[in-house]
Design goal:
The protein is α/β, with parallel strands linked by helices and 175 residues long. It contains six helices and nine strands, in the order E-H-E-E-E-H-E-H-H-E-E-H-E-H-E.
Length: 175
């Protein structure tokens, strides 16, 4: 059994819920899993694999997600890493939207190419946001809703393999 970290950056909790579901899939595959907000993780030395995620707002992952990857994720590929993002753009499941959301990860992927990338539709609930963000949503006439398809999106198979690599750690990313 290998120890895997699932860490996430979230504002309104949707990404935390996706991270929790990913952790459950990994536990069902007999991995020991630690689940934590990315801002609370101090060390990755004890992990055989990392699953790191962020909500996407205005075309960017959260700064805490980007900073964590820059500081902690070795570029050598010594520790397998998978990334996931939660984005309302994916409410419409089109190839163009998937390509657009994948492009948001380009700066992170340039630092360390992941074993896999997961894409999840998001949730927008104005009541969970601060007043400024509520005003922005209202001005943009952005729809509210929960577009996550728990049955279709959450199996580990939804992760898109980006590289076929074996790992001596016993974990080479979600499958």
């Amino acid at each position: 059994m290998s120890r895997v970290l699932v860490a996430y950056a979230t504002r309104a909790g949707a990404t935390a819920e996706v991270a929790s579901a990913i952790a459950e899939v990994l536990r069902a595959a007999h991995h020991e899993v630690d689940l934590a907000p990315i801002t609370e993780v101090r060390d990755i030395a004890d992990y055989a694999g990392l699953v790191l995620g962020s909500a996407i707002n205005a075309g960017k992952g959260f700064a805490s997600f980007q900073t964590f990857v820059m500081r902690h994720v070795p570029g050598s590929g010594a520790v397998p890493v998978a990334y996931f993002v939660v984005c309302a753009t994916l409410a419409q499941h089109t190839a163009a939207n998937r390509a657009s959301v994948l492009a948001y990860l380009d700066p992170i992927v340039a630092l360390n190419e992941p074993a896999s990338i997961g894409l999840f539709a998001g949730r927008v609930e104005a009541r969970r946001l601060n007043l400024l963000l509520r005003a922005v949503l209202r001005e943009m006439k952005a729809p509210e809703g929960d577009w996550r398809d728990w049955a279709a999106d959450l199996p580990a198979a939804m992760f898109h393999r980006t590289r076929d690599r074996a790992s001596s750690s016993g974990w080479d990313g979600p499958r």
